[in-house]
UniProtKB/TrEMBL annotation:
<feature type="transmembrane region" description="Helical">
    <location>
        <begin position="108"/>
        <end position="125"/>
    </location>
</feature>
<dbReference type="InterPro" id="IPR047123">
    <property type="entry name" value="MYADM-like"/>
</dbReference>
<keyword id="KW-0812">Transmembrane</keyword>
<comment type="similarity">
    <text>Belongs to the MAL family.</text>
</comment>
<feature type="transmembrane region" description="Helical">
    <location>
        <begin position="146"/>
        <end position="166"/>
    </location>
</feature>
<feature type="domain" description="MARVEL">
    <location>
        <begin position="8"/>
        <end position="135"/>
    </location>
</feature>
<dbReference type="Pfam" id="PF01284">
    <property type="entry name" value="MARVEL"/>
</dbReference>
<feature type="domain" description="MARVEL">
    <location>
        <begin position="140"/>
        <end position="279"/>
    </location>
</feature>
<protein>
    <submittedName>
        <fullName>Zgc:77748</fullName>
    </submittedName>
</protein>
<keyword id="KW-0472">Membrane</keyword>
<feature type="transmembrane region" description="Helical">
    <location>
        <begin position="212"/>
        <end position="232"/>
    </location>
</feature>
<feature type="transmembrane region" description="Helical">
    <location>
        <begin position="78"/>
        <end position="102"/>
    </location>
</feature>
<keyword id="KW-0677">Repeat</keyword>
<dbReference type="InterPro" id="IPR008253">
    <property type="entry name" value="Marvel"/>
</dbReference>
<dbReference type="GO" id="GO:0016020">
    <property type="term" value="C:membrane"/>
</dbReference>
<feature type="transmembrane region" description="Helical">
    <location>
        <begin position="252"/>
        <end position="269"/>
    </location>
</feature>
<keyword id="KW-1133">Transmembrane helix</keyword>
Length: 283
């Protein structure tokens, strides 16, 4: 029998989620009222706000009616992973929209930029509240490698939205880099979904050891991407007169190079912590 649990709306984290729903709704409504475009950055911002609004609202409804306990997933891991991902998504959407669109001078764009930053603060507060009650988080996502998996997947998303402005389809080397980003992204998503869905115990092999092997392979693959991407993408391209413009291909190549290096560092740290959890902690 379904019963209302109004307490979920009055606790601090419930209040924060209500504010998140309101602020993200205001943000994408302000932007949508102006019009639409197919630009990848515009699509990313709108997707980020709508995605966070939808899932935050869904979390509120499920907890209000107590339906979250009937879903066969690790609810605490799910909300922890979502809050961290939402924080990263809204933060980048706030930066991107402020740099690329808010400078147009439209009042609604300026207002959307302000509310987007407010949404970022709210999601960061939610992460803090969840981490403060760390005993509620169980499983892999409570570890540093688990948190890094969210960051790795997010960094890959940023790379993907910048690929529209890169010449990767003309060079086999750049195609290899895109394959590296895609393979590692898919693996990170599978780990996150398996953790939330409580599927790790059904894995036919020792999960921790498989994770270490995959992380080592990811490090090796990203090491090649860190070298190959700049070599091919910046070949015979020593700058551009459009580098001061937001949609300049040169800027996008720089962003991809930076995020590639960032993800390499994330995978190295991920591998080190995975080794530590598997061998040092158990001994």
């Amino acid at each position: 029998m379904v019963k209302l649990d109004l307490k979920t709306l009055t606790v601090p984290i419930g209040i924060v989620r209500i504010l998140e729903v309101i602020v993200t709704c205001i943000t994408f409504s302000l932007v949508a009222s102006v019009g639409t475009t197919t630009a990848s950055f515009w699509v990313w911002c709108m997707f980020s706000w709508c995605f966070c609004f939808t899932f935050t609202f869904l979390i509120l409804i499920l907890e209000l009616f107590g339906l979250n306990t009937k879903i066969p997933i690790s609810w605490s891991d799910f909300t922890a992973a979502f809050s961290m991902l939402a924080t990263l998504m809204v933060f980048t959407a706030s930066i991107i929209f402020s740099v690329f669109f808010a400078d147009s001078g439209l009042d609604r764009f300026i207002g959307a930029s302000a509310t987007s930053f407010l949404a970022f603060i709210l999601y960061a507060v939610e992460v803090g509240l969840i981490r403060f009650k760390s005993e509620e988080i169980s499983g892999f996502l409570s570890t540093i490698p688990g948190l890094l998996k969210v960051i790795e997947a997010f960094a890959a998303c940023i790379i993907f939205i910048c690929l529209d402005y890169s010449p990767y389809s003309y060079f086999p080397g750049l195609q290899w880099c895109v394959a590296v980003y895609s393979i590692c992204f898919i693996f990170a998503i599978i780990v996150i979904i398996a953790t939330i869905g409580k599927l790790l115990t059904r894995f036919p092999a020792p999960f921790n050891k498989v994770l270490i092997v995959c992380n080592v392979l990811a490090v090796l693959m990203y090491m090649t991407a860190v070298v190959i991407w700049p070599v091919y993408s910046f070949r015979n391209n020593y700058g551009s007169s459009c580098s001061h413009l937001p949609y300049c291909p040169w800027n996008m190549l720089v962003v991809i190079s930076f995020m590639t290096c960032l993800n390499l560092v994330a995978y190295i740290v991920d591998t080190v912590y995975s080794f530590r959890l598997q061998f040092v902690t158990q001994t």
